[in-house]
Amino acid sequence: MAEIKKIGVFTSGGDAPGMNAAIRAVVRSALYYNLQVAGIRRGYEGMISGDIFNMDRKSVANIIQRGGTILKTARSDQFRTPEGRKIAYEQLKANGIDALVAIGGDGTFTGARIFGHEYDIPVLGLPGTIDNDLLGTDFTIGYDTAINTVVDAVDKIRDTAESHDRLFIVEVMGRDCGLIALRTGIAAGAEAILIPESKTDLNALYERLEKGRKDKSSKIVMVAESGEAGDAFEIGRQIKERYPQYDTRISILGHIQRGGRPSCMDRVLASRIGVAAVEGLLAGRRNEMVGIISNELAYTPFEHAIKHNIEINDNFLKIVEILSL
Ligand SMILES: Nc1ncnc2c1ncn2[C@@H]1O[C@H](COP(=O)(O)OP(=O)(O)O)[C@@H](O)[C@H]1O
Ligand SMILES: O=P(O)(O)OC[C@H]1O[C@](O)(COP(=O)(O)O)[C@@H](O)[C@@H]1O
Ligand SMILES: [Mg+2]
């Protein structure tokens, strides 16, 4: 195995609060171990176009508290092709990069895995996505900040819902994954939560609404995007049709969930696994995602990390039922 002299770092896919803390951790720990480090802008797009620059300790000063990503991010169709990946590899070689740290989600690691098999370049991944849809880590970078943003927003919605005696359908993000909806629904005291992992039974939702205390002045139904019963507008339409007496409103929280200052938990997670990524590369690891499971560092092969059967704790849904009396 060739000695690593220069690490390339990039962010890819949807941005997530805490990505900057992760970039900082990778850059500073690479320098600590006397390695050179280069930033690659806009993920795989920048790898292909050669948008690559050398970073020093000052390049990452004053960013740990900032949302978004100073390296910018993108979704690259060209990287999905063998031709695009060949150009990417040539650009890395031209810039003297002999190892990579990829900060992103399941898509980014799917690409990294293919790339790592096609070319002799070690790649480690840091889970950066608000969705928390990766195996091999209890939490992804950005999830904690995002769920706190959601809870803050739903608390505000609750104020106006209470004042007007309204029912709100609140839609949160999480492509094919209900983990944002599940936790925030509990934290915000939702009457019901609809997530893609459990069969959406609108009849059960109606029963819950009917059985619920009649003198409740506000009701919140949390809906994860991409559920089988349709989006919040479709569910809202059906509820309005069935319960014309409810004053129903729909709120799609959208991209505010991706922004803002990262929480302390996200900064610490990003810092810990950022250092572990550099140390892992130096120890000869490759094609793995670095995460934390039960407070211990864990390296998980990409193919396992990106598996889409994230287990939902059924007990969480039961808790919502019990507590929504
Ligand atoms: N099958 C694949 N082959 C090669 N590259 C891929 C593949 N799937 C995803 N990628 C790359 O990873 C990028 C980010 O993936 P995406 O799913 O958008 O975000 P995330 O990494 O946050 O899940 C894609 O734009 C693409 O460039
Ligand atoms: O930014 P876009 O293109 O609107 O994408 C929205 C999607 O990105 C996310 O915010 C984050 O997903 P990824 O981290 O996988 O990119 C999803 O929750 C959402 O479905
Ligand atoms: Mg993803």
What brief labels describe this structure?
single chain, alpha/beta, Rossmann fold, seven-stranded mixed β-sheet, 11 helices, 18% strand, elongated, binds adenosine-5'-diphosphate, binds 1,6-di-O-phosphono-beta-D-fructofuranose, binds magnesium ion, cytoplasm, magnesium, transferase, AMP binding, Phosphofructokinase_dom
Walk me through this protein's architecture.
The protein folds into two domains: 181 residues, Rossmann fold (3-Layer(aba) Sandwich); 116 residues, Phosphofructokinase domain (Rossmann fold, 3-Layer(aba) Sandwich), CATH 3.40.50.460. The chain contains eleven helices and eleven strands. The strands form two sheets. The protein has a seven-stranded mixed sheet with strand order 3-2-1-4-5-10-11, sandwiched between helices. It has a four-stranded parallel sheet with strand order 7-8-6-9, with helices on both faces. Helix 5 packs across helix 6. Magnesium ion binds next to helix 4.
Unreliable stretches covering 5 or more consecutive residues: none
Order of helices and strands, N to C?
EHEHEHEHEHEHEHEHEHEEHH
Physical arrangement of strands within the biggest beta sheet = 3-2-1-4-5-10-11
Tell me what portion of residues adopts beta-strand conformation. 15-25%
* CATH hierarchy, class of the largest domain: Alpha Beta
Ligands, ions, cofactors: adenosine-5'-diphosphate, 1,6-di-O-phosphono-beta-D-fructofuranose, magnesium ion
Total strands: 11
Q: How many H/I helical runs?
A: 11
What is the terminal-to-terminal distance? 61 Å
Catalytic activity: beta-D-fructose 6-phosphate + ATP = beta-D-fructose 1,6-bisphosphate + ADP + H(+)
Enzyme class: transferase
Pathway: Carbohydrate degradation; glycolysis; D-glyceraldehyde 3-phosphate and glycerone phosphate from D-glucose: step 3/4
GO biological process, one term: fructose 1,6-bisphosphate metabolic process
